[in-house]
């Protein structure tokens, strides 16, 4: 019998056999294999997570709230937790998948850090945001309908204190068709190098293309500035995945 405090981590084989086409959902089957799935699917993920701790440490302010919006199993949440040195801060993780939140609770409980974490099973488009110094959207905005992205970022910027920051990690697309083709090919080679078959790559792409809508880096930058941030700096890129640091001026 497995230890209930240690969530079962399985190898991602969700798309290894022929299946009927359907949109990708963050349900219990995905939650069970999510750590393996994201490590093998997102180039640079294992670099971005520890750097979230570093960035959080630089921008967190005493007596403020820190948010991980779309927290899934809490990797970014825990990175933020270890970057917060102020005991009077509140750390809040939000995800609309009850399966993700349930498993996230286990990982939070296993993490050896005294700062409490509040987990909300809520829609990030409507969850309450206030008095924020650091917010993370780690590969989350890409799943929000494009027409609703500016409104969400306006809410985040409006809740962010002067000197605070947003860490936004995303899959992007490119203006140049040639660059798009090259970066997509390299991403697929990354997946093959991590053991995914051509069938898995093809079926995952078909399932996710209607729910994960990537945009260009410039679109993200301009939207962040329009939303109310004063700087939008690219701090990391690996193939077609990037992370941006958006900062509110002091």
UniProtKB/TrEMBL annotation:
The gene is cmoA. It comes from Marinobacter salinexigens. Residues 68-164 form the Methyltransferase domain. CDD domains: AdoMet_MTases (cd02440). Keywords: S-adenosyl-L-methionine, Transferase. One of its GO terms (molecular function) is S-adenosyl-L-methionine binding. Belongs to the class I-like SAM-binding methyltransferase superfamily. Cx-SAM synthase family. NCBIfam families: carboxy-S-adenosyl-L-methionine synthase CmoA (TIGR00740). This is Carboxy-S-adenosyl-L-methionine synthase. The keyword DNA repair does not apply. Homodimer. Catalyzes the conversion of S-adenosyl-L-methionine (SAM) to carboxy-S-adenosyl-L-methionine (Cx-SAM). It catalyses: prephenate + S-adenosyl-L-methionine = carboxy-S-adenosyl-L-methionine + 3-phenylpyruvate + H2O. InterPro entries: CmoA, Methyltransf_25, SAM-dependent_MTases_sf.
